Amino acid sequence: MRVAVLRLGHRPERDKRITTHVGLVARAFGAEEMLLAGRDEKLVAGIEDVAERWGGDFRVKQVSSWRAETRRWKDDGGRIVHLTMYGTPLSKSIDEIRRSGDLMVVVGAEKVPPEIYEIADWNVGVGNQPHSEVAALAVFLDRLWEGEVLERGFRGKIEVVPSSRFKTVIERRGEDEG
Ligand code: SAM
Question: Which domains does the chain have, with CATH numbers?
Answer without folding.
Answer: 3-153 (3.40.1280.10)
